[in-house]
Structures are given as structure tokens and as C-alpha cells.
Write a structure and sequence with these properties.
Largest sheet: 7 strands, mixed
Mean pLDDT: 95
Keywords: NAD, Oxidoreductase
Family: Belongs to the aldehyde dehydrogenase family.
Shape: globular
Helix content: 25-40%
Low-confidence stretches: none
Number of helices: 13
Radius of gyration: 25 Å
Distance between the termini: 87 Å
Pfam families: Aldedh
Protein name: aldehyde dehydrogenase (NAD(+))
Strand content: 15-25%
EC number: 1.2.1.3
Length: about 500
């Protein structure tokens, strides 16, 4: 009997997974001739399965096949491409709970978040289906008689997608759903610590392609490490590379891609603040801060890391927040009522520390087999060096301010510029906050948390967050190339008047 049965993992077989599997899908088949890696459950640090990672030879075979398939896929009409993505969404719906459970087991986020992550991809599929009939260009008035100017949008060919562990499948969805309807093939490198999610998602997409008699190499995936990521960044067959991860690595990816005049879409670090004004709905603010600070054990790029409290509500908000933190259940992410699961890796647990300031609650690791730490609140100065850095853990830095201008200055004082939020009822505060002298982030919220972005809006940030935009709005334009086309439907060229050409 499989050891998966003893661990409660038998459902993984229904996702096309095995206890030892090849970890790359190239040219329509599974293979892997590289090193053997183990994936573990962060709740107990015990092995789930073994995966054979790809070699550079596997990579070359996969991308070359993907390059050839791109010549076929880009000629499929966009609404038909949309129908393929619709079928992917339907397949996800049928496996939503099981995929969500896998995300929880392998990544560590609580079950509701795991299922919610899969739902994000389903929503992106729905969004992309509609988009497939709206990839519209423009007609531009020409200054020349009997001429017309058009903007045409065409596929790039291949989009490389490099995703991180904290959203092991949702970030793929934000990119791949749009890339596919835009006529691009996809080369995906999932996080090396979440290979089972990568493989389960790939199996699902591959099944849809096979059902429609399309080349499997339209969607190519690798469960590899930095070597595969570097190969994608250097590969001239991949015009666009979408990278999600740290600012440090993102900068290296950008430099490598730029050296070959490729395009980058970067979703990097966050260091997000919630501002609570003196007129805020305190109950709403406290609930929002709790959700934003401890969701995914603080391992979201949109996690609230800095809480800025107006001096008049400082003590009231802190008192209510500390009381709420006492009620947070830490433990197995699959158990009901668990709000704080483990950090993703043992190294994250070992490196967990407050980094300065006065601890108001938490601050320590929890002795257990898993990677559990206490949810932590630290009172600190906004000028402290540690406040300028991104921290992937459930640590909330609290600081005090007197005026709106001061709060905005603190919000904007860090290198990162992803998400931000203010709690207030005053229209003049709201419009200053969202205006040119307000938050400098890509996501600027009012009376909601910093996390929980909707797929209909463009997702991304400024400064060292990278400047990329994924998902909704007009983000699709990043996945296509634009041509300005001028058509002469007359018989004369204005500059040729008076010359006889015979």
C-alpha cells in the first residue's frame, strides 16, 4: 500500500501525481534527467514526494518544442484560444478543493486560502475568455489623403513565467491565462519547493490541450531551480519574462533579459502600510489589519508590515488588536479555525527574529516539528533600518503619527511601492491619499486591507517592486507586440507630385 494512504495524501493520485515523478513537461511528455529533489510538508517537515528535476538538455528540448508550437498557436483565432482557456477553467473547477488542499499541504497556507488561490485562477480564466474577443486596436486619423492608420496587436510568441512559493499556482494564472488568449505559448518555472503544485497544474492544462488535439508543448513547465531560471532569462526565444520574487533576484533577471533586448514583467517585494486616521471605523480597521498581517503567515507580497496609527487612536487600536491576536489559532493549516499556518521552510523559521523595536506580543518560534512562529507586533520608529526591508513572516511594525502629511511621508519612505491602505471617512483625505501627492504605490486602497486584490484590476507596484502589471485592466498589452500600420488606398503619394515615373 502507498505510504500516501497512511499520511492522508491519497487524493494526490487524483491530481495525476505519484510519490516519485519526473519534474518537467516538455514536448508533450513528462521527463526529468536532473537531480532528485524532495518536497516536504512545512507543518511537520516530513517528505511528501520525490521529484526528478530537469537538466539543461531537458530545458533545451522543451523550449525548442514550445518555439515550434508557438507558430501554430498564434494563428489560432483569439476566441478559439479563449475557449481553450475556458476549458482549463472548467477543469480547475472540478479539481478546486483537491488542488487547494495540495497548496495548503505543500506551501503551508490555511485551507481556505489554498482553495481561494485556485479560485483566483478560475476567475482569471473567466476574465481571459471575455478578453479573447476584445483584443482591440485603434484607427488613427491620418494627415495624408487616402491613407488610414491602424494599431495592430500580435502575439509575442513565448512568455516565460517564473513564480514564487507563496502563490504557487495563482501567479501562473494571472500570467498564463492572459498570455494564452493573446496567442503566446507558455514556459513556466514553478518554485523549486512547490513542485507538486506545478505538476498538478501542468497535468490539468496538458489534458485540455490533448483533448483539443493541440500540441502539448504549447504549455511547457519545469520544476527546477536557479539554473532553469537563468536559462529562461538568457533565452532569446522568449521575448517576455514575467518574474515574481525578491527585488534582488528580480534586478538580476531584468539585467539579463535587457542585455538581449527582451522585455520583463516584474512583481517584486512589498513593504505595505495601513494608515488609521483619527476618524476611522476602528472595528473595521482592526479586523482588516489582522487579516492583512497574519494571512499566509505574513508571506504575501501584499501583507501589511507597517501599521501607522494616528496619535489620538493609537492606544485604542493597539488594545483591540492585541486582544484579537490572543485569539489567533496557530497550527495545522488543514484544521478548522486555524488562522496562522507554518512558514514555508525550516530556514524561514530559523531566521525568524524581531529585528529591533519593542515587542508587544509574540516574537518567538514555536517548538514543534513544523515551521511555526508566533504572530508578532513590534512598536518601532519609522526611521529604523529594519522597517525599510521586506520581511516574510507574521511581524507587524507599529508606529505613531500626528498629521496626514506625516503618515503619507512614512508610507512613501521605503524602497518598495506595492500596496497601501488608509482608513478614514473624510473625502478630502481619501482624494489626497489617492492623488499625485498621496501614496506612491501601485495599489492604493481605502477602508480595505492591503491584501486581497481583485483580478479585474491591474496588479503590481512601483519603485523596487518592479513596475510590472498583471491580471486585469489593460495588462494584456504587455503580452503582445504593437504595430502601427499605415495603409495607402489611393494612387498618389503627396511627395511624389510633379514627378513622372513612367
Amino acid at each position: 500500500m502507498s505510504s500516501w494512504h497512511d499520511k492522508g495524501y491519497e487524493f494526490l493520485s487524483e491530481l495525476g501525481l505519484e510519490e516519485r515523478s519526473p519534474g518537467c513537461y516538455v514536448n508533450g511528455k513528462w521527463k526529468g534527467s536532473g537531480a532528485i529533489a524532495q518536497t516536504v510538508n512545512p507543518a511537520n517537515n516530513k517528505m511528501i514526494a520525490e521529484v526528478t528535476e530537469p537538466s539543461i538538455e531537458d530545458y533545451e528540448e522543451g523550449v525548442q518544442a514550445c518555439y515550434e508550437a508557438s507558430k501554430i498557436w498564434m494563428q489560432v483565432p483569439a476566441p478559439k484560444r479563449g475557449d481553450i482557456v475556458r476549458q482549463i477553467g472548467d477543469a480547475l473547477r472540478r479539481k478546486r478543493e483537491k488542488l487547494g488542499r495540495l497548496v495548503s499541504i505543500e506551501m503551508g497556507k490555511i485551507l481556505a486560502e489554498g482553495i481561494g488561490e485556485v479560485q483566483e485562477i478560475i476567475d482569471m480564466c473567466d476574465f481571459a475568455v471575455g478578453l479573447s474577443r476584445q483584443l482591440n486596436g485603434s484607427v488613427i486619423p491620418s494627415e495624408r489623403p487616402y491613407h488610414i492608420m491602424l494599431e495592430m496587436w500580435n502575439p509575442l510568441g513565448i512568455v516565460g513565467v517564473i513564480t514564487a512559493f507563496n502563490f504557487p499556482c495563482a501567479v501562473l494564472g494571472w500570467n498564463a491565462c492572459i498570455a494564452l488568449v493573446c496567442g503566446n505559448c507558455v514556459v513556466w518555472k514553478g518554485a523549486p519547493t512547490t513542485p507538486l503544485v506545478t505538476m498538478a497544474m501542468t497535468s490539468l492544462v496538458a489534458g485540455v490541450l490533448k483533448k483539443n488535439n493541440l500540441p502539448g508543448s504549447i504549455f511547457t513547465s519545469f520544476c527546477g531551480g536557479a539554473e532553469i531560471g537563468q536559462a529562461i532569462a538568457k533565452d532569446t526565444r522568449i521575448p517576455l519574462v514575467s518574474f515574481t520574487g525578491s527585488s534582488k533576484v528580480g534586478l538580476m533577471v531584468q539585467q539579463t533579459v535587457s542585455e538581449r533586448f527582451g522585455k520583463c514583467l516584474l512583481e517584486l517585494s512589498g513593504n505595505n502600510a495601513i494608515i488609521v486616521m483619527d476618524d476611522a471605523d476602528i472595528k473595521l480597521a482592526v479586523r482588516s489589519v489582522l487579516f492583512a498581517a497574519i494571512g499566509t503567515a505574513g508571506q504575501r507580497c501584499t501583507t501589511c508590515r507597517r501599521l501607522l496609527l494616528h496619535e489620538s487612536v493609537y492606544e485604542t487600536v493597539l488594545e483591540k488588536l492585541l486582544e484579537a491576536y490572543k485569539q489567533v489559532k496557530v497550527g495545522d493549516p488543514l484544521e478548522k479555525y486555524t488562522l496562522l499556518g507554518p512558514l514555508h521552510t525550516r530556514a524561514s523559521k530559523e531566521n525568524f527574529e524581531k529585528g529591533g523595536g519593542k515587542i508587544l506580543t509574540g516574537g518567538s518560534v514555536i517548538e514543534s516539528e513544523g515551521n511555526f512562529v508566533q504572530s508578532t507586533i513590534v512598536e518601532i520608529s519609522p526611521d529604523a533600518d529594519v522597517v525599510k526591508e521586506e520581511l516574510f513572516g507574521p511581524v507587524l511594525y507599529v508606529m505613531k503619527f500626528q498629521t496626514l502629511e506625516e503618515a503619507i511621508e512614512i508610507n512613501n519612505s521605503v524602497p518598495q511601492g506595492l500596496s497601501s491602505s488608509i482608513f478614514t471617512k473624510k473625502p478630502e483625505v481619501i482624494f489626497k491619499w489617492t492623488g499625485p501627492r498621496g501614496s506612491d504605490c501601485g495599489i492604493v486602497n481605502v477602508n480595505i486591507p492591503t491584501n486581497g486584490a481583485e483580478i479585474g484590476g491591474a496588479f503590481g507596484g512601483e519603485k523596487s517592486t518592479g513596475g510590472g502589471r498583471e491580471a486585469g485592466s489593460d495588462s494584456w498589452k504587455q503580452y503582445m507586440r504593437r504595430s502601427t500600420c499605415t495603409i495607402n488606398y489611393g494612387s498618389e503619394l503627396p511627395l511624389a507630385q510633379g514627378i513622372n515615373f513612367g
